């Protein structure tokens, strides 16, 4: 009889483990999303729009066509984060730096949106402009 209970116990504990191992629960962290955004800006810009929330970002469809040149000139590649404060997802503050030392570094504020387990950029403010450059 105890052998039957042992098998039942093992099955009951194994089923949740099997289910969760089959699911990707990690998603993208805020830091990972910002890294992905800058990686796209520095390399293949055609997928940069994928870092933004497809429903909450009003300009999402326009981002698919953007070459990002007006915000992040190609001549200044390599863009990188000097500092990043992620303590408030509605006000993720970073400092982006690049090869151009006259106009850069610039402060950047990302408003993040979580979808399931994954963080996306919703709005982005660049420099001292009080209006979002992407919303």
Description:
It is a single chain. The chain is α+β, with helices and mostly antiparallel strands and 135 residues long. The chain has one domain: Nuclear Transport Factor 2, Chain: A (Roll), CATH 3.10.450. The protein has three helices and four strands. A hairpin with an 8-residue loop joins strand 2 and strand 3. The longest helix is centred in the N-terminal third of the chain and has 20 residues. The chain is elongated.
- Could you spell the SSE succession in H and E letters? HHHEEEE
Shape: elongated
Just give the CATH class. Answer: Alpha Beta
What CATH calls the topology is Nuclear Transport Factor 2, Chain: A
User: What portion of the residues fall into strands of 2 or more residues?
Assistant: 15-25%
Strand arrangement within the widest β-sheet reads 1-2-3-4
How many angstroms does the end-to-end distance come to?
Answer: 64 Å
Query: Can you summarize the main beta sheet?
Result: 4 strands, antiparallel
Low-confidence segments, given as residue ranges, are 17-25
Structure described in brief:
With 135 residues, the chain is α+β, with helices and mostly antiparallel strands.
Question: How are the elements arranged and paired?
Answer:
Blueprint: H1 2-21, H2 30-42, H3 60-63, E1 80-85, E2 92-97, E3 106-115, E4 118-126
Antiparallel strand pairs: 1-2, 2-3, 3-4
């Amino acid at each position: 009889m105890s052998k039957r209970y042992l098998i039942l116990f093992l099955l009951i504990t194994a089923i949740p483990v099997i289910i969760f191992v089959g699911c990707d629960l990690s998603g993208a962290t805020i830091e990972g999303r910002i890294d992905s955004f800058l990686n796209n800006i520095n390399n293949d810009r055609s997928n940069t729009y994928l870092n933004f929330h497809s429903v909450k970002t009003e300009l999402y469809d326009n981002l698919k066509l953007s070459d990002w040149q007006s915000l992040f000139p190609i001549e200044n590649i390599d863009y990188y984060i000097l500092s990043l404060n992620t303590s408030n997802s509605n006000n993720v503050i970073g400092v982006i730096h690049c090869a151009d030392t006259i106009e850069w570094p610039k402060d950047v504020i990302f408003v993040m949106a979580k979808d399931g387990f994954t963080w996306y950029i919703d709005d982005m403010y660049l420099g001292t402009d009080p209006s979002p450059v992407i919303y």
